[in-house]
User: Fold this.
Amino acid sequence: MAAGYGEILRARHAARLLTGTLVGRLPNATAAIAIVLFVRAQGGTYSLAGALAAVYGVANAVGQPLLGRLVDVYGQPRVQLPAALASALAMAVFAFTGTDPSAAAYASVAGAGLFTPPLEGGLRALWPTVLRREDQVHTAYAMDAVAQEVMFTVGPLLVTLCVSLWSEQGALLVLNALGVLGALSVVVSPPSRAWRSAPREAHWLGALRSPGLLALLGAFLFVGVALGSITVASVPYADEHGGDVVYGWLMAALGLGALVGGVGYGARRWAGAPERRLRGLVALLAVCYLPLMLMPGAVAMVALTALAGVFLAPALACAFVIVDRHAPRGTVTEAFSWLVTMFTVGASVGTGVAGPVVEAGGALWGFAVPAAAGAVSSVVLLATGRVMAAPAGGGVVAASSENDPNRAAEPRFSSGDRA
Assistant:
């Protein structure tokens, strides 16, 4: 296992690109908690804090695919760095002006979310040009999914550290400054500067003209719903079994389970079509949500929550491969950004749906939401199996061609763009 990941990290530029991307995404990973803490310090209500965090999330979901399309057209440095600077500047305006007037606060937060650079999709577009071999690219996608879990675990801790050392305002400024430095580290690297998307056909739908990609996005919308609903359903359970400490352990266990699953998934080579493998992973993910409805004691519930997260990172890693295979020519960054957007939108929908469900039926019915959402995701993948079937021949990493199921004669990794 260590040898497989070590081989990737020893590849030229790989460690730098991964680290720079993770640091560059810190503002996005910490935005919700940083905004809430800052608004509270300003004397604002929780309703205002929640509304501002929601505006940031919606703007981010809108901006990712749009900026991803610009990256495919103009290259990474010309889009990623200006976007990172614009996002950080907008958040700095929010940090210095505060919540009054509220219109300015909403505008600043929306700007910060809208211009968040699509570093996540950009990294996945770079992996084939850095690693070349297909098995290494698959392992890199798994490592990427694991790194996400680490970032979303460490990010909130960094926010609280900055707040304790400086202030809530300082946390906003420092984390966004780090985000700019991370983006800068990526875009000045040789792979990022040399990367060019393959020529694309002018089409207003862009990456969304791929039926296979649409099917995948539909499935992961419901995976996001499941994840978002767990965070809400866990609150009333924790209130009855120990309070905030138990809630923190439940959320940590969910991330730990995903981390362990992702590490294990990336440690071996997988044969067969990833579309078929994804159906199995999502089915297992849905099955592992069901035991949460048992709601045992706190220790057992933490273990069940960890189990519920085990297949999340493997499913994401497998989805990255499928996006690469189905993205139309010249749209790879946009396609990856759409996956991020749909997952984010699904998580927001999940939190919105789970709230009324919990109020009406308690934690038990709240935990029924992720089980139902996981089942729907599995059904979507089964129903669209023919649409998602990869072209005959399997994918190979190629630095000069992309896979377009509607045009290409041979299937290839779409992110193997011309460098």
Notes: The longest helix spans residues 332-383. The chain has 17 helices and no strands. Confidence is low (pLDDT under 50) at residues 391-419.
